[in-house]
Amino acid sequence: MNKKISAGFAGLLLLCSVQLQAEVDLSGLWFPAGGPGQEPAKTPFNDFGQQIYDDYVVSFDEDDDPGGFCVVPGLPRSIWGAPFPVEIQQNERFITMFWEGYFQYRKIYMEGHPRPDAILHTGMGYSVGHWEGDTLVVETTHLREYPYMRRLPNTDTATVTERIRVEERPNAQGVAVKTLINELTLTDPRLYTQPVKVTGHLRWSPDTPIMEYSCSETLYDMFLQENDLVVPDFNQ
User: Fold this and answer.
1) Dihedral of CA 58/64/69/70: which sign?
2) Which of 59, 62, 109, 223 is most deeply packed, by most CB within 10 A?
3) Given 1.20.1600.10, 3.30.70.890, 3.40.50.2300, 2.40.128.20, which CATH number is that of 23-226?
4) Cα radius of gyration rounded to whole Å, the chain
5) pTM (global) more than 0.90
6) How far is CA 83 from each of CA 63, 80, 177, 205, 211, rounded to the nearest angstrom?
């Protein structure tokens, strides 16, 4: 009997050890790398979504991108990230992601650990993750609606599922580089006939610093120019 218990305990320890070894440390700096599947070949709008899109493009040009007016893209659009780096920090309770672009911040709470209740709908939503071998699986709800129809819109009832893994892939010079691959599925029946799948690629870039991102200051500079205003110059 004791031998059976000991064997079972040893097996449990071995299983835990394998699970721990399977998890990948994503911590560090990553830079967008482009790659296939970054945008859907076709956006599968349903009748409701297509009508809204058709009305939208009559009034809004491609140059009317909300990002140019400091509107934070949020999920799922943030996985494109270009041309700004992303910093990831990871521990057993949660994983945080910080984008230089728009200073976006995201926290992924890991299953099996205490976490706060979801309260507000936000650009990054409320994310809970778990490991399946060496793949991080993340489910996100409570996304704020994004009604800008040229940029993969979503309603506030949308959900996002991500499968994130790391592989060695060749760069432009043919050198194998650690690459983070994020296979993302947006499910939003209010707009689409089927889930929309896109893939983001981030290349390991430990020497790329996170810089200060300026957006609203640029808009204010435009305001000053349009109104022939000049702020004091302390270097004169």
Assistant:
1) positive
2) 109
3) 2.40.128.20
4) 22
5) no
6) 18, 9, 18, 13, 12
Q: Tens digit of pLDDT for each residue in 172-217?
A: 888 899 999 999 999 999 999 999 999 999 999 999 999 998 888 8
Structure tokens at 100: 């230089």
Which helix (H) or strand (E) segment is 31 a member of? strand 28-32
Neighbours of 66 (CB within 10 A): 15
Which residue, among 42, 37, 39, 36, has the nearest Cα to 193 in the 3D structure?
42
Closest Cα to residue 134, out of 24, 20, 14, 15?
24
Structure tokens at 105: 């911040």
Which 3 state secondary structure label does DSSP give 99?
A: strand
- Look up residue 9 and give its two tokens: 């305990």
Cβ burial 74-85 (10 Å sphere, 16+ → b, else e): bbbbbbbbeebb
Locate the DSSP E strands across 64-219: 86-90, 94-99, 105-110, 126-132, 135-141, 159-170, 176-187, 196-204
Burial (CB < 10 A; 0-12, 13-18, 19+), residue 227, is exposed
Looking at the predicted structure, is the pLDDT value of residue 125 above 80? yes
H or E element in which residue 28 lies: strand 28-32
Question: Which structure tokens are listed for 112?
Answer: 């099996």
User: pLDDT band for position 39 (50/70/90)?
Assistant: confident
